[in-house]
Amino acid sequence: MEKPRLTLTGLAAGIALAGLATTAQAQESWTMTTTWPDNLDLIQIDRHWVELVNQLAGDELTINFRAGGTLMPGTEVFDATQSGAIQAAGDWPGYWAGLSPAFSPLATTTSLFNGVDYLNWIMEWGGWELYQEVYGEYNMVYLPYGITNNESGFRGGTPIESLADLEGKRLRLSGRDQGRVLEQLGGSQVTLAGGEIYQAIERGVVDGAEFSTPGVDYKAGFSEVADYWSVPGWHQSASVFGVMINQDAWDALSEETQEKLKIAAEATMAWSLAWSERESTEGTVKFLEDGTEVNQLSGEDLARIQEITNEVIVQGACEDPMHAKVYHSMISYMEHYANWRDISAPYNMSRVTDNLPSLEEIEACMNQ
């Protein structure tokens, strides 16, 4: 598949194409669901893409969208899309890391990418092709269409003011690499579905929990049960969301319709980053108005997290070739982009760091 490009001319062409009748192309009707139920605001990203597709490609394709949990449990949408039981499903790639650890960096990173890094990498530094390679092993095409910047951090009933406060803490945390970092910091990872976090904090089942951005967290009601908020969200420095599409369903579309779906994904991805930052800002204001106490980790603590993160990334790369390939591409991007990024600071768009995981060590594992 040809890599999508975000250009005004491409978007204009897509809108123009939407007004043209297709030649002998039967209208397709898809069923799509998502991992997100109606009460989690991340579902807005899925809905935004579906609405754009139905506007741009309505003559050739109609997507009937159902909220997460209304057709099947969110844990089953991967298998349903792979088998063709449904044509598409919105997801967060990290949920499938048990099938392949390569899904984890396609979803998020610990103390590495920010939102603009993901946008750059997906669009111009080879990221899009890697999503196709990883999901392609499971009979699916993947269109990344959502990016959020770093997540809130840990919320709970006791303050986490420094790394020393993580010792012995049971924290809800998603992601294999994230859990490994937390373990080295003295905490223990607890795995909970998003819908279980509120009660787990309220009842003291966990000492703290992370879930998403401040806007999503506030609408999930966490201000009611968590008095303390530890920042920044180093565990997920940015996140990517997208749509899994069954390969046979994709192949049944015309090239023009496929292109419209890509255009809708590009437009949704750009919108989602700005939307989530606005939501995060408004959510933060509301948490503060409710009296939430914010505890900021020191620069020294963040430097220690970066050191451990680098070790964990290399460890994971040496355990799985595809995991290594994804991280090698990401770190190569950061080193290449640094040629311009560093001299444009502080006005650049990406994260500046002088301590990255070792490409040489990852390459050594890849060549074994």
Automatic annotation (TrEMBL):
Signal peptide residue numbers: 1-26
Annotated binding of Na(+), by residue: 211
Keywords of the record: Metal-binding, Signal
GO biological process, one term: transmembrane transport
GO (cellular component) term, any one: tripartite ATP-independent periplasmic transporter complex
Keyword Signal in annotation: yes
Residues at which substrate binds: 151, 172, 210, 236
Pfam families: DctP
Single annotated GO MF: metal ion binding
InterPro entries: DctP_fam (IPR018389), SBP_TakP-like (IPR026289), TRAP_DctP_sf (IPR038404)
PANTHER family cross-referenced by the UniProt entry: EXTRACYTOPLASMIC SOLUTE RECEPTOR PROTEIN, PTHR33376
Protein name (Swiss-Prot/TrEMBL): TRAP-type mannitol/chloroaromatic compound transport system substrate-binding protein
UniProt source species: Halomonas stenophila
